[in-house]
Design brief:
By secondary structure, this protein is an alpha/beta fold. The chain has one domain: 2-enoyl-CoA Hydratase, Chain A, domain 1 (Alpha-Beta Complex). The chain is built from ten helices and nine strands. A hairpin with a 2-residue loop joins strand 1 and strand 2.
Length: 249
């Protein structure tokens, strides 16, 4: 089944998450995002990528009800795949712009943090790294990416509170870069992607690597331990009881 729609126009590839109402993430979704990005990395006609969602959600994050049936080893394998995607996106040689069309939660927020720019639709949509609210931890890469764009003090506030922020609130934290009205989100995202895509490609890729490779090298050393800790907490009795209450409609 196709969970990622790909369209191309004027040197920009748009990847649209389209898995039900909330675009919840599974191994298949991660695989399809990775495959689409790899194809567009190799395409000389594509100079920038936009990642967005269909419907009222950019992404709910992990498909918790599905993962409740996973063994620890199976869930660990998924997390390795997911964190591999985050690392790949974070160092992707072409610009990636996240067009946050709706609610952007937990793993969905992590995806957006791996992009170069985040534009969020104003209004009722919320963005959050709310793992602490249901007793879960976060991953090493997502924490370092958050710290890189929001700063250490804001990262602590975001992670400790588990609060859900409007686009305007998120912008004050550095969690998103731009806020757009619903009707302007697509055009603003295309404009920013086009502006980044016009930069000399080799220079952009080199500067991005210089900026981000030291951060990636640091979190990649810690990720295996972070995944183990994440899994241990996820399968703890208290967190498991909270996870069983989460539904996806």
């Amino acid at each position: 089944m196709n969970f990622v729609e790909v369209s191309k126009n004027e040197g920009i590839a748009t990847l649209t998450l389209c898995r039900g109402k909330v675009n919840a993430l599974t191994g298949a979704v991660v695989d399809q995002i990775t495959e689409a990005l790899k194809k567009n990395e190799k395409d000389p006609d594509i100079r920038a990528v936009i990642l967005t969602g269909k419907g009222p959600f950019f992404s709910f994050g992990f498909d918790v009800p599905e993962f409740l049936s996973y063994s620890k080893d199976e869930f660990s394998d998924y997390l390795k795949k997911f964190t591999g995607l985050l690392s790949y996106m974070f160092l992707y040689p072409k610009p990636i712009v996240a067009a946050l069309n709706g609610h952007t939660m937990a793993g969905g927020c992590m995806l957006s943090l791996a992009c170069d720019q985040r534009i969020m639709s104003a209004g009722r949509s919320k963005i959050s790294l709310n793992e602490i609210s249901f007793g879960s931890s976060v991953l090493a890469g997502s924490m370092e990416m958050l710290r890189a764009c929001a700063g250490n003090a804001n990262a602590m506030e975001i992670l400790y509170s588990g609060a859900m922020y409007s686009a305007e609130q998120a912008q004050t934290f550095g969690l998103v870069d731009h806020v757009a009205q619903d009707q302007d989100l697509v055009e603003m995202s295309k404009k920013i992607a086009a502006e980044l895509g016009k930069k000399p490609s080799a220079a952009f890729a080199s500067i991005k690597m210089l900026l981000r490779k030291p951060i990636a090298a640091e979190f990649e050393k810690k990720e295996a331990v972070a995944i183990k800790e994440f899994v241990d907490i996820w399968y703890s009795e208290a967190t498991w009881e909270n996870l069983k209450k989460i539904t996806i409609n």
